[in-house]
TrEMBL record:
Residues 130-230 bind DNA. It comes from the Bacteria. Pfam families: Response_reg, Trans_reg_C. This is Response regulator CheY-like domain-containing protein. The lineage of its organism: Bacteria, Pseudomonadati, Pseudomonadota, Alphaproteobacteria, Hyphomicrobiales. One of its GO terms (cellular component) is cytosol. GO terms for biological process: regulation of DNA-templated transcription. InterPro entries: CheY-like_superfamily (IPR011006), OmpR/PhoB-type_DNA-bd (IPR001867), Sig_transdc_resp-reg_receiver (IPR001789), WalR-like (IPR039420), WH-like_DNA-bd_sf (IPR036388).
Length: 247
């Protein structure tokens, strides 16, 4: 596998290259933003199977590199950073990052995450999503990725649409955080990572902007996950399922 590594910290870059657990992989190091942009615009980016990009570079931002890459290529790309709030990680995933790994990290784990992203990229096929679903009185058009209510429209990101699609496959039933993270975010659930919670909160805010009553149809099942209540059932919170062994 040919890998592009964009990292300005010599120690971090050397650690990744020297500790990379797959001897046959080739890692090319680029240490600054401008050189990376030249690689992208020259179409050389397509020669790589995957990329690892540091968010904080001395002459630019890894998130901008990600956005530029996505205008030219669908190469699997992981962002790495020594800092980052759940909101900033969610922003990176919205922009097209395949994963977001916080420093310090295990090089073995980084390699596993990149390999998984590359494998998924090679095997994934366009998913057939249901055309529409209802969140109370708010309609969700998954084809257009939009929420609709009495002539008003709010756009959804791809991941927000995937979350709602996954919830709609199990109407009235609880979807675990692990299930939602795996099938909507394409990553294993980590309770320390609040990205899933951030996305659910975003969806709820958008629904609430259109119809405050309809937001109650997206329910939290404490300690387990979330459920989308069918409109015919009503959103009586007293009927929301509770975990068997609440902590």
């Amino acid at each position: 596998m040919d890998i592009l590594l964009v990292e300005d910290d010599d120690l971090v870059a050397r650690t990744i290259i020297e500790s990379w657990p797959v001897p046959g992989d080739n890692i090319r190091l680029i240490s600054n933003y401008k050189q990376c942009l030249r690689t992208i615009h020259s179409a050389e980016i397509d020669f790589f199977d995957g990329a690892i990009v540091d968010v904080n570079l001395p002459d630019g931002n890894g998130l901008e590199i990600l956005r530029t890459v996505r205008r030219h290529s669908d190469i699997p790309l992981i962002l790495i950073s020594g800092s980052g709030s759940p909101e900033s990680r969610a922003t990176a995933l919205d922009a097209g990052a395949d994963d977001y790994v916080m420093k310090p990290f295990s090089v073995r784990e980084l390699q596993a995450r990149l390999t998984r992203a590359v494998t998924k990229s090679e095997s994934i096929r366009p998913e057939v999503l249901p055309c529409e679903l209802a969140i109370g009185s708010v309609r969700c058009d998954l084809t257009r990725r939009a929420l609709l209510f009495h002539g008003k429209t709010l756009p959804l990101t791809e991941l927000e649409a995937r979350l709602l699609s996954e919830l709609s496959r199990n109407p009235g039933r609880t979807c675990s955080k692990s299930q939602l993270s795996k099938h909507a975010c394409f990553r294993e659930y980590d309770p320390r990572d609040k990205t899933l919670e951030v996305y659910i909160a975003r969806v709820r805010r958008k629904v609430e902007q259109l119809d405050p009553k309809s937001v109650e149809y997206i329910q939290t099942v404490r300690g387990v996950g979330y459920r989308l209540v069918p409109p015919t059932e009503g959103a009586d919170m007293s009927n929301a399922p509770q975990p068997r062994n609440p902590r």
